[in-house]
Design goal:
The protein has helices at about 5-10, 20-25, 45, 50-60, 75-95, 105-120, 125-130, 135-150, 160-170, 175, and strands spanning about 100, 180. It is mainly α. Strands 1-2 form a two-stranded antiparallel ribbon.
């Protein structure tokens, strides 16, 4: 099958029939353009029919609702891990007299966590409602207490809390990064 002269010229031209204006819009120099002859087929006629179906299939395959419906906040692992670390750090600093909070680090982590939640698709009112929910606060505090108990903190033994706090600081865990020790 042979290609007619105008078709061959259009398909072998600088940009499959793009005009100088088209190339300039893409930041390409217009001097390398072979002028499209009148009546010659353009890129749209040869390429676009082949791209229509794959583009349509790609658009239909995209998960339209996935970004709009993230997992519920109580089940989001990163957010809950950070909140659990903050709650455990708060328990440590209130129990151990030599452990204190690194306030600016804590405030920065809170802001990072809010930004993370919003980037995951949660709205600011949803985040605020989750953080203000007493049942969620109690759940996170109970998980933090369980973590501290597993790490060696014993109720009524202040030094065991101090030791856990110093260990967390030394290991530079998320909780330890929010704390400082005066010992």
């Amino acid at each position: 099958m042979t290609v007619a002269a105008p078709q061959a010229q259009a398909m072998t031209g600088g940009c499959y029939g793009m005009t100088g204006t088209d190339r300039a819009a893409f930041g390409l120099p217009p001097k390398f353009i072979a002028p499209q002859t009148a009546g010659a087929p353009s890129c749209r006629r040869f390429v676009m029919p082949f791209l229509r179906f794959p583009l349509l299939a790609l658009c239909l395959a995209l998960p339209f609702g996935a970004a709009a419906t993230p997992v519920p906040l109580p089940q989001e692992p990163h957010i809950n891990d950070e909140l659990r670390a903050a709650a455990a750090g708060d328990i440590l600093r209130h129990t151990c007299p030599t452990i204190s909070a690194r306030l600016f680090v804590f405030l920065g982590r809170v802001q990072d966590l809010k930004s993370y939640a919003i980037s995951k698709g949660y709205t600011p009112p949803e985040v605020k409602a989750f953080l203000d929910d007493d049942a969620q606060k109690a759940r996170i505090k109970a998980e933090a207490e369980a973590y501290l108990a597993a790490a060696g903190a014993k109720p009524g033994d202040v030094e065991s809390y101090c030791k856990v706090g110093r260990d967390e600081i030394a290991r530079k865990t998320p909780m330890g990064q929010m704390l400082r020790s005066s010992q």
